[in-house]
Design goal:
Layout lengths: L1 E4 L6 H14 L15 H12 L10 E8 L4 E9 L4 H6 L3 E5 L8 H15 L4 E7 L3 H9 L3 E7 L5 E8 L4 E5 L5 H15 L6 H6 L2 H14 L1 E7 L2 E9 L13 E8 L8 H15 L4 E7 L3 H9 L3 E10 L2 E11 L1
Parallel strand pairs: 11-12
Antiparallel strand pairs: 1-2, 2-3, 3-4, 5-7, 6-7, 8-9, 9-10, 10-11, 12-14, 13-14
Helix pairs in contact: 4-5, 6-8
Length: about 350
């Protein structure tokens, strides 16, 4: 099991072994906080202690360095450095968390787990909005940040001329679910159009996706959203997702055992993996249960594997498939049923 441990004499051999491996590659060692002279191990440990307690040079901030220790392999596989606060420089392109995995232990899922554990430490420090920064061409790092809820704010040019991406991770996801209001319509339709163009890229005909506009969808869907049951998810006063549902089987009239249907669920693509979809889905399930409904259905395109994973995780049982026309082409749609 992977865990973050405080620098300690107990891990001296494992730490030195990691550092020697890293140095032998000639790579830049990340995080920078572990680029210390470890030949005097006791002095190095004192430096880590001082940094975590705010005993730092002028212009620096208190920061805690932790080693990522895998107790199954008895190896230190990397390290994280957590800045307790951000100064102007760190706010631009440093961030709260810097993490690094030793060369021989990469592509094993350690980075994602290390960030998850580091976020737990941020919570202990009272940090509720965490900034992480990585180079745009470092696809692996970007994915690890995104899997931990990272939301891309912008891209900047770093001092070395390379493009850096700045991600925020919200540790207090105050997601509010409420009925849709007319003022939400533009946001809701924008999410739907963006989600289609993202999720169905390579699945649905490109010309059809390119032709979709918020203005066109808004006119078509205005009545639909306001007359049928629709809820929205708000995060920090921003609409980040929505769900539409009906308490009958009018969209699946040939299925007599179906009592209700979840007809649409969308989340801003950049905010996936933040629990928004789960909250929307759970809200609908609970409402149907209160109405004494016993079986719900939803449909999705067969090739939309990412959505299918979510629906299956929520307990859906694959029941049937049908051909559906979108634009001038036909696609296979599959149904998931849920016992309520």
């Amino acid at each position: 099991m992977l865990k973050l441990v405080k620098p300690s004499i107990d891990y001296k051999n494992q730490y030195i072994e990691m550092m020697k491996e890293w140095e032998s590659t000639g790579e830049k060692i990340i995080p920078a906080s572990i680029r210390k002279d470890y030949t005097n191990f006791t002095t190095m440990l004192k430096e880590f202690y001082n940094e975590s307690n705010g005993i730092v040079p002028q212009g620096y901030v208190a920061a805690t360095t932790l080693w990522a220790y895998d107790d199954e392999t008895n190896k230190i596989v990397g390290a994280v450095n957590i800045r307790h606060t951000l100064n102007e420089s760190l706010l631009k392109n440093g961030g709260h968390i810097r993490d690094g995995v030793r060369p021989s232990e990469r592509r094993k899922g350690y980075a994602t787990k290390m960030i998850q554990l580091a976020l737990n430490e941020c919570e202990k420090l009272g940090i509720t909005k965490v900034l992480m920064v990585c180079y745009k061409d470092n696809i692996g790092s970007a994915k690890s940040i995104q899997k931990n809820g990272g939301i891309l704010e912008n891209e900047i040019v770093a001092n070395d001329g390379k493009i850096e991406q700045r991600y925020w991770i919200y540790l207090e996801n105050d997601i509010t679910i409420r009925p849709i209001e007319e003022k939400d319509l533009v946001d809701v339709v924008t999410i739907q159009v963006t989600a289609w163009k993202t999720a169905y890229k390579g699945i649905i005909d490109k010309d059809y996706l390119d032709s979709m506009t918020v203005e066109e969808k808004l006119e078509k869907k205005k009545k639909d959203y306001l007359l049928n049951k629709c809820i929205v998810a708000e995060l920090n006063n921003e609409i980040v997702g929505f769900c539409r549902y009906i308490d009958n089987n009018s969209f699946s009239p040939t299925l007599d055992t179906i009592h209700c249907e979840l007809t649409a669920i969308y989340v801003k693509p950049e905010l996936k993996y933040n629990g928004i979809g789960t909250k929307l889905f759970t809200y609908v399930i609970n409402e149907f249960k209160q109405q004494n409904k016993s079986k719900m259905i939803l449909w999705c395109l067969k090739e939309n594997y990412n959505s299918r994973k979510f629906y299956e995780k929520m307990g859906g049982i694959l029941s049937k498939e049908e051909v559906v026309n979108i634009g001038n082409k036909s696609y296979i749609e599959i149904a998931y049923e849920y016992d309520l």
